[in-house]
Design goal:
The structure holds two protein chains of two kinds. By secondary structure, chain A is mainly β. Helix content of chain A is 0%, strand content 54%. The chains are: A mainly beta, B mainly beta.
Chain lengths: 111, 112
């Protein structure tokens, strides 16, 4: 079975721009969660989507948003980028509701 | 909300020795505790997990123990090998929803 895929793997943006990251879950998995990983804050939960609905949300500003499509693929969007948004953005998919399998991540650098 | 503390932050062991990483959590409603291994340039890989109705679980050289009363859980790696070198994360979550709260991570170095 193919694992979780994320595109692009690397991204460089400037402050004020917006960015869209994509995640394709493992086939059959309907839940997709997004996490931000930084050296200072570690791994932090952004949000979770299940059957195209946001089921859980972390403590991030409204500039961070997401959506899920009918094929379970998910996108997250960050608007008005700030330097502090530089991070590894990880997507995880789940079938059973607990076991989450992570993708390789998208490394976002904001200049 | 849930808070997960992980110790130590770095761990250096000789090949063949055991490594132990400890985590504590704050929310007594948490009932699922996975452990992830992250190698350089890769996403976290699930290596073992435990649910609150179980006190211990083993998978070859890896074992996890859970003490719900004390809100502690630990990862034990026996007969360490150089390929065990990585950053290890513990996490906790409740049954409903999939929000994982992670510990700060432990960088493990296995010296040949």
């Amino acid at each position: 079975k193919a694992g979780v895929t994320q595109t692009p793997r690397y991204l460089i943006k400037t402050r004020g721009q917006q960015v869209t990251l994509s995640c394709s879950p493992i086939s059959g998995h309907r839940s997709v969660s997004w996490y931000q990983q930084t050296p200072g804050q570690g791994l932090q939960f952004l949000f979770e989507y299940f059957s195209e609905t946001q089921r859980n949300k972390g403590n991030f500003p409204g500039r961070f948003s997401g959506r899920q499509f009918s094929n379970s693929r998910s996108e997250m969007n960050v608007s008005t980028l700030e330097l502090g948004d530089s991070a590894l953005y990880l997507c995880a998919s789940s079938a059973t509701g607990n076991e989450q399998f992570f993708g390789p991540g998208t490394r976002l650098t904001v200049l | 909300g849930e808070n997960v503390e992980q110790h130590p932050s770095t761990l250096s062991v000789q090949e063949g020795d055991s490594a132990v990483i400890k985590c504590t959590y704050s929310d007594s409603a948490s009932n699922y505790f996975p452990w992830y291994k992250q190698e350089l340039g890769k996403g976290p890989q699930l290596i073992i997990d435990i649910r609150s109705n179980v006190g211990e679980k083993k998978d070859q050289r890896i074992a996890v123990t859970l003490n719900k009363t004390a809100k502690h859980f630990s990862l034990h790696i026996t007969e360490t090998q150089p390929e065990d070198s990585a950053v290890y994360f513990c996490a906790a979550s409740k049954a409903a929803g999939n929000k994982l709260t992670f510990g700060g991570g432990t960088r493990v170095l296995v010296k040949p």
